[in-house]
Amino acid sequence: MNPLKHMAIIMDGNGRWGLQHKNSRNLGHKEGLKTVEMVMKYCIKKKIKFLTLYAFSTENWKRPLKERNYLFNLLEIYLKEKLEKINNEKIRIKILGEKNFSKNLNNLLDFAEKKTKKNTKLQINLALNYGSKKEIVYAFNKLKKKKRINENDIKNNLFTKNMPDPEILIRTGNTQRLSNFLLWQAAYTEIFFEKKLWPDFKNIDLNRIIKKFSSIKRNFGKI
Question: Which of 78, 152, 155, 156 minimizes the number of CB atoms within 10 Å of its CB?
Fold first, then answer.
């Protein structure tokens, strides 16, 4: 059976789900939180140590201001209501990306990271204001004084330093692209594109994907 330490997810389809069911993209984002909690519980049960969620990309700033504000407010409310429970369950929160939000949200994200820093049961990486190209540029800028740069130098200066690359990357929403997500880290990741919209993604879908992953022969360039 292939080891599974790190699972990454592009949570696509909230807005479309909201329009289909409630005629509101925002309500789709709210419904998607239920799926996030399901996946968190699944990872703890299966002893998957790292879960990276693509929550807001550097390109998502192009979305309407009203929708952006709703997303940030939803995150703020969720952390205020759930952070104590998350900490009690020994879950660590880490932010991947530049904190370029309101002062209140920035402070809350900093507080969540600090409060949960020593937790080891599950690390949730929230990719917020995250873009993989920007992340790689960030790493190179930190290394610009070095005359020679190798792969380990870059890896150790990415936002994901000190964690394994994801073995599995799931994208819901019936779209087959990476959308500037973990481009460096996903070089040998097994990628699963799902037709279901994120709020419709269930435990049974995760089981199916992991069962398929377990049967894959991972050669990493070898025969």
Answer: 152
Q: Take residue 192 and report the two structure tokens written for it.
A: 């699963």
Rounded Cα distance between 166 and 29, Å, is 25
Domain residues for the domain of 76 are 6-213
pTM of the model: 0.96
* CATH number of the structural domain spanning residue 26: 3.40.1180.10
Q: Which of 2, 12, 88, 180 is catalytic?
A: 12
In the residue annotation, 205 being an active-site residue is answered as no
User: What are the tens digits of pLDDT across the range 2-60?
Assistant: 899 999 999 999 999 999 998 999 999 999 999 999 999 999 999 999 999 999 999 99
Tokens of 94: 């880490």
* Domains: count for the chain: 1
> Which of these is catalytic: 2, 23, 26, 60?
60
78 phi and psi, to 5 degrees?
-60, -45
What is the spatial distance between Cα 182 and Cα 176, in angstroms, rounded to a whole number? 15
Residues in the chain: 223
Q: If we measure between CA atoms, which residue out of 68, 54, 139 comes closest to residue 105?
A: 68
Q: Is position 12 annotated as part of the catalytic site?
A: yes
